[in-house]
Design goal:
Order of helices and strands: HHEHEHEHEHEHHHHHHEEHHEEEHEEEH
Oligomer: single chain
Strand content: 15-25%
Strand order of the largest sheet: 7-6-8-9-10-11-13-12
Structural class: alpha/beta
Number of helices: 16
Number of strands: 13
Distance between the termini: 59 Å
Number of domains: 2
Length: 434
């Protein structure tokens, strides 16, 4: 009896949240602001024999980017509307649809007059979607684009069915540069230092920067995104019954952004709240939060031993506003939020990012992209010689010729220190030199 009522309860919550999301998406269409960071990369693969897969946290802009691609196909490449087919699979219209039904539905909509451009949004809602996509690209003249909000999109099944025939694009919430671009459409851009402080506090979900919203209004929108992600992508999909345990783990990770911790740390924390949870269950919950793109795992890399360490990892959030919408804004968390922002910016630019373990400490980020490498220390402020020595000495322990940065959010005299470049965080985020 309890299982039936619980399932119905969760289903109603999910339906309400999805309806709210749909309303917000309709509002989002009113203002379309192009995001060339992604659009230019994806457009380069139009008509190429690859399935284009866009992944990222809910409401980071994937659906809107699909609309932008469709618009460019119509206006710049003169593709007629009947050859552009779009389906959003988190809509109630496709509720309980099977893979076979999905295939039959799309097959009916293929154009007899030339290549059909298929845009399939949130396809992870259809079990077996990868088989459908594989059949379509194998048997018909199609150019296919799909989005998803769960890293199950990149499971081994996709590799099996689409081997060598797909390319992925990770979509993030707005960068600082994009945030300024959005804001200038409805407000005046102020001092960049002050704008960075606003960006830290308000985050970068596109829907929250289409017009001037108050902080409370922004956090209300982001809480909707958070709730729909938790219930749709984690609770519903994994059939989690003990939601309070999941929420406590979320609270712990959100509070400890930028700190190294382990499953044992979380277990001990829960034990202090008179909750018992074994390490494997903790790891399972963390993995689910990762797969829903709410969290990013950042491993430690031993710079001497040249190996990835399996313990004491850090986790960063998909967007700072998630933390503040759930826990409330706290000025003491700004240092960790600045670190989070720099981490995401490096990921946006295609770097693989790790924490660098040195002999005597840690470097915040070691970022590698093909043959390039950066070392980055992030600090909110340096208010003593001791702090300054600590931030620079860690980088001086690394004896190679790759660029090294100390990034700050306070006022300082610029310049280099023994080859280490000091930059304001806002300047680093807007720089094109790395």
């Amino acid at each position: 009896m309890f299982e039936i009522s619980f399932a119905v309860y969760i289903r109603k919550i999910i339906d309400i949240l999805n309806n709210l999301r749909y309303t917000a998406l309709q509002m989002e269409v009113v203002i379309v602001i192009y995001r060339p960071m992604y659009l230019d990369k994806i457009m380069a693969y139009v008509d190429a024999p690859f399935v284009k897969i866009l992944t990222g946290v809910r409401r980071c802009g994937k659906s809107t980017i699909l609309k932008m691609i469709m618009e460019k196909l119509r206006t710049e490449r003169n593709i007629p509307a009947n050859r552009i087919v779009s389906c959003r699979y988190d809509s109630m219209e496709y509720d309980d649809m099977t893979a076979r039904q999905m295939y039959a539905h799309l097959k009916e909509r293929l154009s007899p007059d030339g290549k059909t451009y298929l845009f399939l949004d949130e396809v992870q809602e259809i079990k077996g979607w990868e088989k459908v996509v594989n059949s379509l690209v194998s048997d018909y003249d199609v150019d296919l684009y799909v989005t998803g909000s769960n890293s199950r999109m990149m499971s081994s099944e996709i590799s099996t069915y689409l081997t060598g025939r797909y390319i992925t694009f990770r979509i993030f919430t707005l960068s600082f540069s994009e945030y300024l671009m959005f804001k200038e459409k409805y407000d005046t851009i102020g001092n960049l230092r002050e704008e960075l402080a606003e960006y830290v506090r308000l985050g970068g979900f596109p829907a929250t920067h289409l017009q001037k919203y108050s902080q409370d209004e922004i956090y209300t929108i982001v809480r909707d995104i958070y709730n729909s992600t938790i219930f749709s992508d984690i609770v519903k999909r994994s059939q989690i019954r003990k939601i309070d345990q999941l929420e406590r783990i979320v609270k712990y990770t959100f509070q400890n952004v930028g700190n190294t911790f382990s499953a044992k740390s979380i277990s001990d924390y829960l034990k202090s709240e008179r909750r018992t949870l074994d390490h494997e269950t903790v790891y399972s919950y963390l993995e689910k939060l990762e797969k829903a793109y709410l969290l990013h795992r950042c491993s430690r890399y031993d710079l001497q031993g040249k190996e990835i360490l399996k313990t004491q990892e850090k986790f960063y959030l998909a967007d700072n506003a998630l933390r503040y919408s759930v826990l409330g804004y706290n000025a003491d968390s700004v240092a960790a939020s600045l670190e989070n922002i720099v981490y995401l910016e490096l990921c946006r630019r295609g770097y693989t990012v790790n924490i660098g373990k040195t002999k005597d400490g840690e470097i915040d980020f070691v970022a590698v992209r093909q043959n390039e490498k950066l070392y980055v220390q992030v600090t909110q402020e340096i208010h003593s010689e001791k702090t300054e020595k600590r931030e620079y000495s860690r980088l001086l322990e690394v004896h190679d010729n790759y660029p090294k940065y100390v990034l700050r959010a306070d006022e300082f005299a610029g310049g280099n220190y023994e080859g280490i470049k000091t930059m304001h965080i806002s300047d680093f985020l807007l720089s094109s030199e790395y």
